[in-house]
Amino acid sequence: MYQMTQLDADVIVVGGGSAGTAAAVAAGRAGASVILIETGNCLGGTSTAGLVAAWYASMDGLGCVYDDFVAMLDRFGAREDGTFNYGGMFNAETGKLVWQLLAEGVGVRVMFHSTPSAAAVSAGRVQDLCVVSRAEAYEVSGRFFIDASGEGDLCALAGAQFDKGDPDEGRTLHMSLVATLFDTGKLVTPFLPPGLEPLESDEELPGLSGPHPMADGRFYLNMTKVMGHDPTDPLSLSAAELEARRQLARVVHYLQRTKCPRHMLASTGSRIGIREGRRVLGDYVLTEEDVLGDGTTFDDGIGVATCQIDFHSLTRPGMVGWRKRVKPYGIPFRSLVVKGFDNLLVAGKCISGDQVAQSSYRMTPTCVGMGQAAGTAAAMAAARTLGSIRHLPVDELRRALADAGVELDPAKHKAFPPSEESETPDREGAR
Q: Is a pLDDT exceeding 80 seen at residue 428?
């Protein structure tokens, strides 16, 4: 046995992706002491480590944290617009640094290479976490906790209720490993390792789209599609990572023989992109009906989602699925408050919602907005020594968010994408 090192802060955030880092920055700006726990070695999550450095949501009215992130990217000259999607892209490596600078600037204590392994819970309150890293253990205590792990890991450890996948068979949206290619300046010799079947046509490609030209001359590939795996099961997730690289080898081999004869792999995401894991049960479940409504609003709305329903087929490869443009709609604070807990919030793609709704609100800009709301709420509750997050006056939270640049009226946001070109009618086929 070894003795645990004790750490303590007002707000503990689990997950250093876009939502979690935004939550930590917002809480720090509101005067709270913050510990941010991240399993990887950088901040930004899927959008940086995973190379999904693209914006699939409208970018206005999301709050000062998002605005400052984008503004600093611009200072570095690390952003480009309109390469192949409506929202543009940014340099993922620079994104890692920008998130780090924003967090460090407000005194957030970042714990990389760290994973919560247990949660102590008493009377509906998370008391502390056991966090392990490199054969060391830490007892991390806090007043309020935010689960921004993407897959609801903290909530699962704490015993919270959650849903996962479709209601029939529990199938989650597929995972993808993103990659880029660079031009070698000469013809390359395609090679496919033994045991892998060559692809012979575009129709056989497993993933979504690509190759897309980037401003720096590389090609962007979102061309793997790993289905039938559970991202919350370590063995299944490992199998998904392995399958993704096998798919990518076949895709690159095909592209070298057809569209990209001079190109080789430049980079791949250091982690597979997970679209859907656990959806934690909150005080309110955001539903498909809410998303398809006429700009649904909530009295406790703390942000707005703008992206289309982006529901990829759960069983078929390729671009098939259901995509439908929606009117911007509100996200209620109750969907961030974990049912049965007084000091536990969620932010990002693991908030309380059904599978179809999640396919819309899971996009990075929306997650940043949710993170800012959760971090602000936790800091306000900690400063007032509230016994429950539910005792925080929502009107005061909304005013604080509005003062911080969050536009809370869905009618003042723009739907994404700006046209209906991407819509597909095959809703039932998406299952």
A: no
